[in-house]
Amino acid sequence: MAQAARRNDVERTGSMTKQKILATAQELFANNGYNGTTVKAIASRLDLTDPAIYYHFRSKRHIFDSLLQSSGAGQFVAADNEVPSREDLIDRMMSTFNAYARQPDMLRMLFRQQYRGDPASNQRRRETMATFQATLAPLFTRLYGETGPAILEAVGLVTLGIIWDAILSYGHGFAQVVEQPWFAQRARKLFEIAMPPVPA
To answer: Does the predicted TM-score (pTM) go above 0.85?
Structure first.
């Protein structure tokens, strides 16, 4: 019994250490880029040794890929069978945007690597956009009919544009800026432009 409890404590501690490594690496990747971040820098920030990092991850790339796998998970709410109103869809898009905006270091990390042409980061972007399209297409089709997919594609591009523009414009201040009421109003206005009123 005591041995099982000790094993559980070790596993729990290992899991916490792994999460701290990921969180620290994500911050450093966001600030310095993948190439500008070393395993030594991650270890130093956590008061760990390099071998302690390698105990949990095979390489710096393994850390980065683990972060990529966690990005974008659970951001899209599956469609129900109701015909939504335009306002409902705008609210849904604002919720999706806000869910992403609460991950500023992840977004900045992804932006840096996508800009540099990192294949895994760009593949993750494509997968996220495909999930976005597949999840929300039924709602847009119910509201807009055959033009729904094209409108949804425009809305997806607007979402990316708002995020990347904010990252480029505000850098480290991105997280604080997107929480401001004026920024939410601006984002909502852009969604309203991308999502035309439904003809009566």
So the answer is: no
